[in-house]
Amino acid sequence: MTLIKPLRLITLTFLYFVTVLTMLVYTSDQEIFFDWTVSYAQRAPLGVNKQVIVINDQLPGPLLNVTTDNVVHINIHNDMTDPFLTTWLNGVQLRSSWQDGVQGTNCPILPGHNWTYHFQVKDQIGSLFYFPSLHFKKAAGGFGAIRVNNCAVIPIPFPLPYQDFDVLIGDWYNTDYQVMRTSLDVGNGLPMPDAILINGLGPNEATFDFQPGYISLTIPFWFPWSYTTQDDEYDSLDIHVGQSYSVLVTAKNDTNGTSYPMIASSRFTENILFGLGVIRYPDSVAYPLGTISPGPTPFSYTYFMLQAQSIRRNLTVGASWANPQGSYHYGQINISRTLILKNGVIFDGHRLRYTINGVSFIQQDTPLKLADYFRLSDVFEPNIMFDTPNDNVLLVLGTSVVDAMYHDYVHVVFQNPLQEIQTWHLDGYNFFVVGMGFGTWDESKKESYNLFDAVSRSTIQVYPLAWTAILVKLDNQGMWNLRSQNAENWYLGQELYIRVKGIGQDDPSTIPIQDEARIPENVIKCGNTTSL
Ligand SMILES: *[C@@H]1O[C@H](CO)[C@@H](O)[C@H](O)[C@H]1NC(C)=O
Ligand SMILES: *[C@@H]1O[C@H](CO)[C@@H](O)[C@H](O)[C@H]1NC(C)=O
Ligand SMILES: *[C@@H]1O[C@H](CO)[C@@H](O)[C@H](O)[C@H]1NC(C)=O
Ligand SMILES: *[C@@H]1O[C@H](CO)[C@@H](O)[C@H](O)[C@H]1NC(C)=O
Ligand SMILES: *[C@@H]1O[C@H](CO)[C@@H](O)[C@H](O)[C@H]1NC(C)=O
Ligand SMILES: *[C@@H]1O[C@H](CO)[C@@H](O)[C@H](O)[C@H]1NC(C)=O
Ligand SMILES: *[C@@H]1O[C@H](CO)[C@@H](O)[C@H](O)[C@H]1NC(C)=O
């Protein structure tokens, strides 16, 4: 979950994976309070001492266990010497970008200060996670799992799982995050990680105790608010930086003393790294015997693109909504705009710059959301990026904000001309993943789209020399971050903001307030807004 580099992770359990879904059923409608202190600590997951970031002395941080419709208040105290912000990744579909916790929406919580996030968890269930958004802190910790449980009134389409597990998979560097950051600043790339950790633990340290014969839910894995069909079973899953799934696992009933490895393997890296956890039964030996499988063979991008396409929505069941998902015909809505976003990388003479349609993002000291609110027109100029790539534009440094209208139905094609995997995330939304293919996208590719039962999610991979197409209804006003989930790319400019404005607000300088939450009373001001 806290992948820094785009490793491809394959989780193998040698068990049955029935695909996806939900969790236990609780009631909601209540306010939930958390008090978190973020600080440095020394930990040595791989036997090498490292300064890590803990929350309430825990790595990973505390589980955020909430139910749909809960109103959540999280008071974060920054006891570090560096500014801090947390973002609620993976479709905690905030209705307010004031709570998004990224640099374009919030001023950082300064050392010695605290700030309380307030948000309601709406229209979703499943396993998500949070992590520090200010760059590279996620390499040191500060992340944790979020469970959004069902409302009691909405049934789940399978037997209640016997137990739940959170599985956080991340790569790990023994190097300090500040050293890594400095290294990027002077033009170096990141090295290979030192290891893959599961739940912040080294090989065979994370254990999962299964009850024979029962269904368990393991939780790195989840498509927010949709159930997938159950005709396919998977014994491995292709997971990318920043993605989460919920899966049902049917435990074996013929336990014969064996324990089983849970394997997260990086594939398509020169040296394959393994994160190893252990699945145990009551009478199991402590550790699995035998050799560790690196995952399915033969191994190809085609194999995993086919797997991604095979995961489809079950249209006959609702998830967080009472109505069956199939009643929403996303494939029949007219598209109001198409964005073709092509990623690139270029050396600017000092360091690498990662780009979207030739524009590499420059952070401002004033959050864009605040600049917008106070009508400061000198912080950024909107629409410096074109909707489609122009191969004459190699590098523009700028604060890229795309203006869009509330309720627009936008078709986005991520075009990847490079040999490496890309992973894209959009805050504030889930989108329908309608197509993927190798080569260069053109209009004819629309014929291959799944306009019927595609899954909806917030983070999507684009395979090397390939494209991925999504459809998104801009039904959430605010300033929303679209970014590469690969930390290096993100840090070096591969992001933009989509400013979703209220109807009738054609003037880009007006504030999108129509359906949006008001500015929080406890808002922190910084940059040009400090004295306003
Ligand atoms: C999560 O919250 C639900 C509802 O309050 C509770 O029943 C359950 O025990 C909690 N789980 C954990 C692991 O805290
Ligand atoms: C900081 O924490 C205190 C209690 O510890 C709380 O009363 C106050 O509202 C918090 N400040 C902000 C800005 O959230
Ligand atoms: C496991 O197998 C035993 C013996 O075959 C059977 O009695 C038991 O009901 C099974 N348990 C489950 C949970 O399926
Ligand atoms: C969809 O879910 C329903 C309810 O659980 C189930 O009966 C049906 O088999 C599922 N359909 C598919 C194709 O998996
Ligand atoms: C236990 O069962 C597994 C698979 O069902 C098998 O691979 C293994 O050899 C068995 N172990 C023993 C000790 O019989
Ligand atoms: C979609 O566009 C077509 C062609 O322009 C038009 O005939 C149709 O009414 C539109 N549908 C909706 C729902 O707006
Ligand atoms: C506001 O900030 C921008 C950069 O973020 C700067 O260029 C500009 O001069 C500032 N304006 C004022 C009035 O300070």
A few lines on this structure:
The chain has 532 residues and is mainly β. Helices cover 6% and strands 35% of the residues. The protein has two domains: 25-296, Sandwich (Immunoglobulin-like); 325-529, Cupredoxins -  blue copper proteins (Immunoglobulin-like), CATH 2.60.40.420.
3D structure, described in words:
Residues 38-150, 229-273, 365-500 form the Plastocyanin-like domain. This is Monocopper oxidase-like protein SKU5. 6% of the residues lie in helices and 35% in strands. It is mostly beta strands. The chain folds into two domains: 25-296, Cupredoxins -  blue copper proteins (Immunoglobulin-like, Sandwich); 325-529, Immunoglobulin-like, CATH 2.60.40.420. The chain is globular, with a radius of gyration of 22 Å. The chain starts with 7 loop residues before the first strand and ends in a 31-residue tail after the last strand. Mean pLDDT is 84; it is low at 6-27, 218-225 and 320-326. The protein binds 2-acetamido-2-deoxy-beta-D-glucopyranose (7 copies).
